[in-house]
User: What shape does this take?
Amino acid sequence: MSVVVLTGGVGGAKLVLGLTQILPADQITAIVNTGDDFRHLGLWVSPDLDTLLYTLSGKANAVQGWGREGETWTFLETLRTLGGEDWFALGDGDLALHVLRTMRMSRGDTLAQITADFAHHWGVGITMLPMSNDAVATSLETDAGRLAFQSYFVERRCAPVVERITFDGAKQARSAPGVCEAILSADTRTILIAPSNPYLSIDPLLAVPGIEAALRAATAPVVAVTPIVGGDAVKGPTAKLMRELGVAVSPASVAAHYGTLLDGFLVDERDPTAQLSLPTFACDTLMHSLADRVRVAESALRFADSLR
Amino acid sequence: MSVVVLTGGVGGAKLVLGLTQILPADQITAIVNTGDDFRHLGLWVSPDLDTLLYTLSGKANAVQGWGREGETWTFLETLRTLGGEDWFALGDGDLALHVLRTMRMSRGDTLAQITADFAHHWGVGITMLPMSNDAVATSLETDAGRLAFQSYFVERRCAPVVERITFDGAKQARSAPGVCEAILSADTRTILIAPSNPYLSIDPLLAVPGIEAALRAATAPVVAVTPIVGGDAVKGPTAKLMRELGVAVSPASVAAHYGTLLDGFLVDERDPTAQLSLPTFACDTLMHSLADRVRVAESALRFADSLR
Assistant: This one.
């Protein structure tokens, strides 16, 4: 029996890492947001896929919260002396993924094939699927105009006020081979929605035709892990974004956002659950240590099993 | 009055560096071989142009003889773990040139424009022109089959026996803007052929339509600096290649190869000049130190002036 996780980058990677400590890797499928992907300096960058690769292969920079441990920055320093764009921090080792990915894509390999090869080379045993092999680009309408995701997220550090979020190319995209199959499989025990940003990391996934319908048709329970802890987001722009979109920063807002898609909601013990009309389970959902990640993953699985 | 130098990479860069110590930079034009250029991992690599950039901006790795001083190798080490091709040593800082060049070429900028910008950013004041903005690819017919230049030079370390050398695309290539103009200009005092490999570094230049004719039509004397010192090549595969092509490793063979293109030949004092039927000047042409480079550059200019 397998577990499927819909995930963005950092927070989701922690949950998936927790799962890998308690389940055999071949029982885990991560379906990963690629709405943050973009072409930078001609290179195809897939931040969420790479964060999962780094986290699951033990290469992630835990202190920094993104990128690689032991990274060097000679490329970026040299690029700066040539007048190249330096707002997006491309580490020297990180570049290897981008250069190889870009070359292989130009030869006609799919993002899914390339991701599977990278995972294989780094000993990552889970099935890592991009949500789609087609380009889907999250962009934001803000008080500073329309911004591509990385321009909003990295270049502008999430400062602009967001009015609306779109997923360009999503309507034409096909889910990557295996994505809907994994969700619909009779062997799938649980479908988890990681504690990633619902609007920026999970919505792009749901915007790819077929994925939301598959989730609704799945026999396995769909359980979200809250991205809100103690009335705030653990990390990133989630809370600011929710306020800008006019919703309260609470698990109730997240539950309302996912609506009838969810069969259950793993909330944090710090937050009130009175408003929630779906099955919930409350625990400490902060995942600072590896033990925390294992504990949250275990709680999510046990809770989901109770809903079957 | 200006000086024009036809040059390959390492040896030629030393001569050009010598020239920059005795002439104002705006009186020097280097016309640079791009037959070694190739696309590697999707990136456009221009080894001779980059060697000149590194040498003239003080960034060259003098001990290693190629690449950058203070280079790091995180990209290549990471690439290796992903199963990427690692036979061509791409340093982290070196990558900045290749990534930026490739991105700008894909946007339609010419190699000449990009090279001029790189030189400008690094304070290289001479005019650096690629021989052509069009792709010309040196390849070698060898006892190991037909090999692209870098495959022969780097991957196979010049081990295969060379039978014939071709410059694919040369016939269709146009010389870069300014190349023939610099050669033909009435302001040009001297045209030097650097002590680069005649077969692999200078012949590609001569294969681009118009360049050889311009040299023959130029009013300035054309003077070659010998790549042969004491009956051997200073560096690289020149001597091995000459033997394989059936010619003696001597200045006479180089003079015969260039033929009537030359008005004079700066030979090394270690080598016999009796066989040479063109004007020669002999001196110590080894360029270990910066003082050596200045001395050889001065000798070449003085000798050329004597031929006007």
In short: Chain A has a mean pLDDT of 96. Chain A has twelve helices and 14 strands.
